[in-house]
Amino acid sequence: DAKTTQPTSMDCAEGRAANLPCNHSTISGNEYVYWYRQIHSQGPQYIIHGLKNNETNEMASLIITEDRKSSTLILPHATLRDTAVYYCIVRVLYNQGGKLIFGQGTELSVKP
Amino acid sequence: DAGITQSPRHKVTETGTPVTLRCHQTENHRYMYWYRQDPGHGLRLIHYSYGVKDTDKGEVSDGYSVSRSKTEDFLLTLESATSSQTSVYFCAIRGQINTEAFFGQGTRLTVV
């Protein structure tokens, strides 16, 4: 599975959009981009995933560049409860065992 | 929340003693995973299972063994606990290989 690069930390003002970037320049054609987040001391939580088209759900939007070498997770109206570590993961959808390999993630701090 | 329970939630044990952590699910999901999380390393995959009695190693499997004798339970055993195995352990489950993973609340293990 391809590796990802994310900023170590980011700040965002409450009520504003949080844009979290992820670089995955070695991504293969059959690898998906997944986002999970981990709120302090809890287990990680799935947010969204996509292959090449932009995706949106009730939690966030995922924007993938045309060359698929990078992506951005957008939380449209960040709240204090969105403060968490956000993990960008790329993996083959049908990889052996469906494993998720986590990187270091981005620590997002939403401030009042 | 997904029906996934980890036990115990907290444990302190002495070096050299055997320890077993249990992950129990009520979702009848096929895939189950054990991760550990340490400061500076993020989440690392220890072992995973893709069915009853079907298990495989992850990134950091040395010193750990697992068993899955029935769908709902995935056991992680430290045969002889060491201080380096002090960590927070997370279990995860997945129904289909291409669906999201759900994580438990974690077990904090301290080896003294």
Spatial order of the strands forming the largest sheet of chain A? 1-9-8-3-4
Note the overall shape of chain B: globular
Please, how many helices of chain A? 0
Cα distance spanning the termini of chain A: 37 Å
Computed structural class of chain B = mainly beta
Low-confidence stretches of chain B: none
Quaternary: heterodimer
Percentage of residues in helical conformation of chain A? under 10%
Low-confidence stretches of chain A: none
Q: Gyration radius of chain A, to the nearest Å?
A: 13 Å
Radius of gyration of chain B: 13 Å
Main sheet characteristics of chain B: 7 strands, mixed
Specify the structural class of chain A. Answer: mainly beta
Q: How much strand of chain A? A: over 45%
Helices and strands in order:
The complex is a heterodimer of chains A (112) and B (112).
Chain A: E1 9-13, E2 18-23, E3 31-38, E4 45-50, E5 55-56, E6 61-64, E7 70-75, E8 84-92, E9 106-111
Chain B: E1 4-7, E2 10-13, E3 19-25, E4 31-38, E5 42-51, E6 54-57, E7 64-70, E8 73-78, E9 87-94, E10 101-103, E11 107-111
How would you describe the overall organization of this protein?
The complex is a heterodimer of chains A (112) and B (112). Chain A contains no helices and 9 strands. Chain A is an all-beta fold. In chain A, the strands form 2 sheets. A 5-stranded mixed sheet of chain A has the order 1-9-8-3-4, with no helix packed on it. In chain A, strands 2-7-6-5 form a 4-stranded antiparallel sheet, with no helix packed on it. In chain A, a hairpin with a 5-residue loop joins β6 and β7. The mean pLDDT of chain A is 93. In chain B, the strands form 2 sheets. In chain B, strands 2, 4, 5, 6, 9, 10 and 11 form a 7-stranded mixed sheet that branches. In chain B, strands 1-3-8-7 form a 4-stranded antiparallel sheet, with no helix packed on it. In chain B, 36% of the residues are buried. In chain B, β5 (42-51) and β6 form a beta hairpin. The mean pLDDT of chain B is 94. Chain B contains no helices and 11 strands. Chains A and B meet through β4 of A and β4, β5, β9 and β10 of B.
